[in-house]
Design a protein that fits this description.
Layout: E1 2-4, H1 9-21, H2 23-35, H3 43-54, H4 58-73, H5 76-84, H6 87-109, H7 118-146, H8 151-176, H9 181-198, H10 214-241, H11 246-261, H12 263-281, E2 287-289, H13 302-306, H14 308-313, H15 315-320, H16 332-336, H17 339-360, H18 362-368, H19 373-405, H20 409-428, H21 434-461, H22 466-473, H23 476-503, H24 523-546, H25 548-552, H26 566-578
Antiparallel strand pairs: 1-2
Helix pairs in contact: 2-7, 2-8, 3-4, 4-7, 4-23, 5-22, 6-7, 6-9, 7-8, 8-9, 8-10, 8-11, 8-19, 8-21, 10-11, 10-12, 10-19, 12-26, 17-21, 17-23, 17-24, 18-19, 19-21, 20-21, 20-24, 21-22, 23-24
InterPro entries: MFS_trans_sf, NFD4_C, Nodulin-like
Family: Belongs to the major facilitator superfamily. Phosphate:H(+) symporter (TC 2.A.1.9) family.
Organism: Solanum tuberosum
């Protein structure tokens, strides 16, 4: 059916509606939601405030860090909910969890409620951190399905904005609340929730449409995001070097927001070109084409129903022995019980577990090595910004190398893990200024691992159950963090701190918090972390060998058969909108 829309003022209104309903505006909304979904990376900034106001020791703080990582990485619930509910519901649940968890932490820190038990604080921070999985599932998974041929670039950009979110929210809280870590917790509570509520109906899955200049649009977004990252890095360093007035903080936050919203101009230009071409193809009139609904799956032949008993008995063999080829759609059990997923699990446990441990302890590491508080905050900001560069690098560079040279994305993961070992060793054996270099390397390698993990899962196991599989794939991260952070790094730090107390003739009861000063505080833990990460790199080499032939082929072949006409783009946006 074709409905003809008139020109003039109505044409302008129709174009605005076309933009708001299109894939590009949905992607822009995803950028904003992901830029507010990285509150867990600011734990190093406000963790000291929690430690001081609630009187926790380092082991208790590390335990909170573990539950933060647990919530941030155990996203199976959000994935399963997304399999049976629309995207808007996933975003609403995430917004409610984010506000509830962090708002309760803020009330605890400012003393508005009685001091909570440690287990209650663990629940609060786990609940708040888990909300980012709902943002990931709602925004990232939907965007990957809308742009499957550019999934490396897509995941790199989206996770890159998440990596920048720490620096962005820091600028906003300095402009709104001033230099107050308690108010930062309040900002983390309301801002991500507000973004999800604003764009709750904007982000949705649409028909895949190939456009010739799609890669160019993504590269424009890449340039904008790099400019934003460089601006944040320079601003952060200036804020530590000189004293900023409140007006200067407001200017910095305004420029950050302007750069963050700049991709919208690129997307409007793209939609305008599509709109003009549509009018040209239809004699100067923009037509809204309502396409037929996508074809339903063809039912299985009757003989399958007759032999249902045989099919049931062969279920076990289908899961373990009759799996699809790599790149086809696996079922959830087929993917989770595969050897490829097991290897990814081991590499993730070692790599992300070690990186999370380093990130969570970066503030205390700077203090133990004698750096002033302002310098420690610089380390944390640098870590957040280079986290972004790692995500962008692993997304765009791995995509480019894969398309041009068939360079396996799994091999890129191995190289990233080896780089991470260097950063961990710089902390284990520090020298003057080494923490600057270590924060850059660890931030970069940590950021690079996530897009690689998510993209590899989508490539090996398909997109049909991606919302569940990518959340399952990162389950190894909190387990690694628990082992390496709670059971290794925290106790070893406290042991060194107790040794310092004994030298001073003091006991644990005589001090409010345990503090260790010196190179020895984190030396042994980070030697262990470097060894574990190296083991993960060696494990990932096995996956490189197993997937070598797969990456030599055209892994995006089935998506290249999609139409790429602007009429289809319009049809996609309008048909999808009518289903809401």
């Amino acid at each position: 059916m074709v409905e003809t829309q008139g020109g003039g003022g109505d044409g302008g209104v129709q174009f605005v509606l076309h933009v708001l309903r299109g894939r590009w505006f949905s992607l822009f909304a995803s950028f904003l939601i992901m830029s507010g979904a990285g509150a867990t990376y600011l734990f190093g900034v406000y963790s000291q405030e929690i430690k001081n106001t609630l009187g926790y020791d380092q082991t208790t703080l590390v335990l909170l860090g573990f539950f933060k990582d647990l919530g941030a990485n155990v996203g199976v619930l959000s994935g399963l909910i997304a399999e049976v509910s629309p995207t808007w519901f996933v975003l609403l649940v995430g917004a409610a969890m984010n506000f509830t968890g962090y708002f309760m932490i803020w009330l605890s820190v400012i003393g508005k409620i009685s001091k909570p038990k440690v287990w209650q604080m663990c629940i609060y921070i786990c609940l708040g951190a888990n909300s980012q999985n709902f943002a990931n599932t709602g925004a990232l998974v939907t965007s990957v399905r809308n742009f499957p041929e550019s999934r490396g670039n897509m995941i790199g950009l989206l996770k890159g904005f998440t990596g920048l979110s720490g620096a962005i929210m820091t600028q906003l809280y300095l402009a709104v609340y001033g230099n107050d870590a308690q108010s930062l917790i309040l900002l983390i509570a309301w801002m991500p929730a507000a973004l999800s509520l604003i764009f709750v109906y904007t982000i949705r899955q649409m028909k895949v449409v190939r456009q010739p200049n799609q890669q160019t649009v993504f590269f424009h977004c890449l340039l904008i995001s790099i400019v934003l990252a460089l601006f944040l890095m320079v601003t952060t360093l200036l804020e530590k070097a000189i004293s900023f007035s409140h007006a200067a903080y407001v200017v910095a936050a305004t420029v950050s927001c302007a750069l963050l919203f700049s991709p919208l101009l690129v997307f409007i230009r793209e939609e305008l070109a599509i709109w003009r071409q549509m009018k040209q193809n239809n004699g100067g009139v923009a037509n809204t084409i309502v396409e037929n609904p996508p074809p339903t799956e063809i039912p299985q032949p009757q003989k399958d129903q007759v032999n249902s008993k045989t099919s049931t008995s062969s279920c076990f063999s289908k899961i373990f022995f009759e799996k699809p080829a790599r790149g086809e759609d696996y079922t959830i059990l087929q993917a989770l019980l595969s050897t490829d997923m097991l290897i990814l699990f081991v590499a993730t446990l070692c790599g992300l577990g070690s990186s999370l441990t380093a990130v969570d302890n970066m503030g205390q590491i700077g203090g133990s090595l004698g750096y002033p508080k302002t310098t420690v905050k610089s380390f944390l900001s640098l870590l957040s910004i280079w986290n972004f560069f790692g995500r962008i690098f692993s997304g765009f560079v791995s995509e480019s190398l894969l398309v041009r040279y068939k360079f396996p994305r799994t091999l890129m993961m191995t190289l990233v893990l080896l780089l991470s070992c260097i950063g961990l060793l710089l902390i284990a054996f520090p020298f003057p200024g080494s923490l600057y270099v270590a924060s850059i390397i660890i931030g970069f390698s940590f950021g690079a691992q996530l897009p690689l993990l998510f993209t590899i899962i989508s490539e090996l196991f398909g997109l049909k159950y991606y919302s569940t599989l990518f959340n399952c794939g990162q389950l190894a991260s909190p387990l690694g963090s628990y082992i390496l952070n709670v059971k290794v790094t925290g106790p070893l730090y406290d042991r060194e701190a107790l040794k310092d107390l004994e030298k001073k003739g003091l006991t644990r009861a005589s001090v409010k918090e345990l503090t260790c000063i010196g190179n020895q505080c984190y030396q042994l833990p980070f030697i262990i972390l470097a060894c574990v990460t190296f083991f993960g790199a060696m494990a990932s080499l096995i996956l490189v060998a197993r997937t070598r032939q797969f990456y030599k082929g055209d892994i995006y072949k089935k998506f290249k058969e999609q139409p790429n006409t602007p009429d289809t783009e319009m049809a996609s946006s309008n048909t999808t909108n009518k289903t809401i």
